[in-house]
From TrEMBL, chains A, B:
<dbReference type="InterPro" id="IPR023753">
    <property type="entry name" value="FAD/NAD-binding_dom"/>
</dbReference>
<comment type="similarity">
    <text>Belongs to the class-I pyridine nucleotide-disulfide oxidoreductase family.</text>
</comment>
<feature type="domain" description="Pyridine nucleotide-disulphide oxidoreductase dimerisation">
    <location>
        <begin position="340"/>
        <end position="446"/>
    </location>
</feature>
<keyword id="KW-0520">NAD</keyword>
<dbReference type="Pfam" id="PF02852">
    <property type="entry name" value="Pyr_redox_dim"/>
</dbReference>
<dbReference type="InterPro" id="IPR001100">
    <property type="entry name" value="Pyr_nuc-diS_OxRdtase"/>
</dbReference>
<dbReference type="GO" id="GO:0003955">
    <property type="term" value="F:NAD(P)H dehydrogenase (quinone) activity"/>
</dbReference>
<feature type="binding site">
    <location>
        <position position="51"/>
    </location>
    <ligand>
        <name>FAD</name>
    </ligand>
</feature>
<feature type="binding site">
    <location>
        <begin position="139"/>
        <end position="141"/>
    </location>
    <ligand>
        <name>FAD</name>
    </ligand>
</feature>
<dbReference type="Pfam" id="PF07992">
    <property type="entry name" value="Pyr_redox_2"/>
</dbReference>
<feature type="active site" description="Proton acceptor">
    <location>
        <position position="436"/>
    </location>
</feature>
<feature type="binding site">
    <location>
        <position position="260"/>
    </location>
    <ligand>
        <name>NAD(+)</name>
    </ligand>
</feature>
<dbReference type="InterPro" id="IPR036188">
    <property type="entry name" value="FAD/NAD-bd_sf"/>
</dbReference>
<dbReference type="InterPro" id="IPR004099">
    <property type="entry name" value="Pyr_nucl-diS_OxRdtase_dimer"/>
</dbReference>
<dbReference type="GO" id="GO:0004148">
    <property type="term" value="F:dihydrolipoyl dehydrogenase (NADH) activity"/>
</dbReference>
<keyword id="KW-0547">Nucleotide-binding</keyword>
<feature type="binding site">
    <location>
        <position position="302"/>
    </location>
    <ligand>
        <name>FAD</name>
    </ligand>
</feature>
Length: 472, 472
């Protein structure tokens, strides 16, 4: 049996569902194909349940400071791991149920099978075929266990499994201090799990600015047990596992693998598309149109191998949805980049990173902000901490990007990425309101430092003159 | 004895000290005169110590939800009022000590006396006179007890006295639900003080949008005991006091008076300036230059009778400092307005308020955002709550202002005020990054609603097209 459709979407995750919204406005004749668990990676095993666990951990952590300011009895507080995990799953189920309920309108357009390309217009689903004018690949990414660690699979927890744990292990080795490693590692540490984390480099949460990398690594090293080195699994020890790096060996209950995700492209039959695949098996695609070569096939979301960031996956879905239903294929600009790691303090990159600026050879100046002495920061975090580096065009002070680790950093990062996106210069940003007392105030000194380093003369005054009569 | 100076600044608060910074760059020959407590209203009795108390109260309040997500033992937590107040004072002293230490460079330019105008260039300090080329009045504002309540003064606590309390009263009537009333009232309620609050109108925290006013009033009424009516003091009852409004009488230990502040202008001898004073005793002044008529006298900070907002007082100080030392008097633009009440959720007005837009007869459309169903909002607040109204120019969708009560509202308000200040339209704002999951996401639906109501055609797409070749 062959079903003829206008658009076939492979994958009912964030990118696929966003594409579906767009496609469904143009045609009823589409299918969305997914044989995996529904509800999106973010809601099932990603951003949402992790934020719930982090909220519990940080609220519990704040109680450490209770005695200091006059609330007694905090030493009687006990985290009940199984109840915490049950609560996280309850919230998680609300999020995924919400997603799945909205899918009821798809009726028989949702096909719970595995798709494999026969050619660029045809998918084999086993017992049926789909012939589609255009196809969107939105199969996402998933955690990946290297071959040599497969024998220890039962001792390894990845993010697909983590939120299903009925209880938390007493001790846990965290491999990798990227966003997932530092978010979950710190949260579990704060809940009392004995954590030993490994990082190959002095950095955390995806930071690229050397100053920030050192600051963040040292900050987290004071709170948690972090080893600098290449982590490996040495051997089993009864129910436990011995892990190690260059500087020693440690026995832990389990390993949390947070070393990265890989696009889900195996078994998709991409080799039947008739284009050359790279050494990871990925076809070439245009990041502006998401089109694979000149084929009627589009690659949207985490599957494209770029950063697994939800709002970018959703944008991809929109672009793919547009381009599979429009007469003419269009190229779209990416939003100003924004990546946030929900550690405490938050880590974020807004606009261009230090590495991107350096790689591109941009001439930029840097302003530095610190929350180390900000009274309000102490109230938010329990103690004051955090720094930011803001980058601006050396010529005119136009803001290009920032890296930061800061109290309320998720919000500082939004403000800075919008300032970059709106094309503000440092001088212009200094004319914007900064309320008191807020963490945003710390950004001012960074902006002021930028003014002193740029080629264009700085205004001698941080308020704008009234318009003279006759000015438009 | 008469001392001749270039600039005399009356008042060593935020406005006066900011003016001093500017003046000191131009001349050594200035004086700053203050006979009151040093350290600024904000750091002594205002924004800073209140934020410390609010942080304690909100952290304690969060423990109410601990059992729900698996942390046991929260019922053993006890707030020790005297230790909490001592901690708040300790922080407060750090803030004020910091301010006072920076004043050591003033040496004999700081005069701890009371100043009174003899004429527009001459101040009488009792045992000496100051003759100044230019004078800045930066005497601030203070809480005010109406004449009829003076007999109950010993039962009334105002913000000048509040932070000196060794202990907290068991029950407290809060008169007024403006920023101070709702901030302190809610914090004390959350710490277990029995609060009965009075508001003459269904509003809170300075909101002007009728939808927001109702929402906020009803939200706080669910948490706290709030009476709609005109509060009055009825009589003493032993050590206590009977307060009432149209709907009844209640006996409380003390009254927190939060009905507003008044400029400190009595005894300044403003009548000797030779300009007509209004019925509050205020001289006329130009809000752009801060100059009083054509006199060499400038009015900076809370004393000008506008909103007591620190960053605006500091801007006033800068303008007055500039205009007292520059050859030519300049007019400066105000920053985009931003007012934040640190209740939970935060209340804020960013850009123009609903009332200002209506008064000015601006043609605007409104987009509505809600945090009521946002998962992340529940994690931040304990439960999801909050709404926003964003106002935009009906013609082109340019953002004009917003009122909100929202989780992380202080940060939503910064983002929106910067968007207003940068001149973004709703369409442009929608091309900015919104990470997931963050409270900022809720703003998107408000922006989307604006697009549907404006005269200019909305783009059918919330991403920008790539620039075509040849575009600059």
């Amino acid at each position: 049996m062959t079903r003829e459709v206008d658009v076939a979407i492979i994958g009912a995750g964030t990118a696929g569902l966003t594409a579906q919204e767009f496609v469904a406005e143009k045609t009823d004749n589409y299918v969305i194909i997914d044989d995996g668990p529904l509800g999106t990676t973010c809601a099932r095993v990603g951003c949402m349940p992790s934020k719930a666990l982090i909220a519990v951990a940080n609220n519990f952590h704040k109680c450490l400071f209770f005695d200091e300011y006059g609330i007694s009895g905090a030493n009687a507080l006990r985290p009940d791991y199984s109840r915490i995990m049950a609560w996280v799953r309850m919230l998680r189920d609300e999020f995924t149920d919400g997603v799945i309920q909205e899918m009821s309108t798809f009726t028989d357009r949702l096909i719970r099978k595995r798709a494999r390309f026969i050619d660029a217009n045809t998918l084999d689903l086993g017992d049926e075929r789909i012939r589609a004018r255009r196809i969107i690949i939105a199969t996402g990414s998933k955690p990946w266990i290297p071959e040599r660690w497969q024998p220890y699979k039962d001792l390894i927890i990845d993010t697909d499994q983590f939120f299903e744990l009925a209880d938390l292990p007493g001790s846990l080795a965290v491999f990798g201090l990227g966003p997932i490693g530092i978010e979950l590692g710190q949260a579990l540490h704060r809940l009392g799990v004995e954590i030993i984390a490994f990082s190959r480099r002095k950095t955390a949460g995806g930071l690229t600015d050397p100053d920030l990398q050192t600051y963040a690594f040292e900050h987290f090293s004071k709170e948690m047990n972090i080893k600098l080195g290449t982590a490996d699994i040495r051997r089993r020890l009864g129910n436990k596992v011995v892990v190690g790096c260059e500087s020693g060996e440690w026995t832990v209950d389990r390993i949390l693998l947070a070393t990265g995700r890989r696009p889900v492209i195996q078994d998709l039959g991409l080799e039947n598309l008739g284009v050359e695949l790279d050494d990871r098996g990925m076809p070439p695609f245009d990041p502006g149109t998401l089109q694979i070569k000149d084929l009627p096939v589009f690659l949207a979301g985490d599957v494209n191998g770029q950063k697994p960031i939800l709002h970018e996956a959703a944008d991809d879905g929109t672009i793919a949805g547009y381009n599979t239903t429009a007469k003419r294929i269009s190229c779209f600009k990416k939003r100003t980049p924004l990546a946030i790691t929900f550690s405490s303090p938050d880590i974020a990159i807004a606009g261009l990173s230090h590495k991107e600026l350096t790689t591109r050879g941009v001439e930029f100046v840097t302003g530095k902000a610190s929350w180390e002495k900000l009274g309000r920061a102490r109230m938010i975090l329990g103690k004051a901490a955090g720094i930011a580096r803001i980058y601006a065009d050396k010529k005119n002070g136009r803001l290009l990007g920032a890296e930061l680790m800061a109290p309320a950093g998720e919000h500082m990062a939004h403000l800075l990425s919008w300032a970059v996106g709106a094309g503000l210069t440092a001088a212009r940003a200094l004319t914007m309101p900064f309320y008191h007392p807020v963490p945003e105030e710390a950004l001012r000194s960074a902006l002021g430092q930028i003014l002193k380093q740029i080629d264009d003369p700085a205004p001698d005054f941080r308020l704008e003159l009234c318009q003279k009569k006759g000015d438009s």
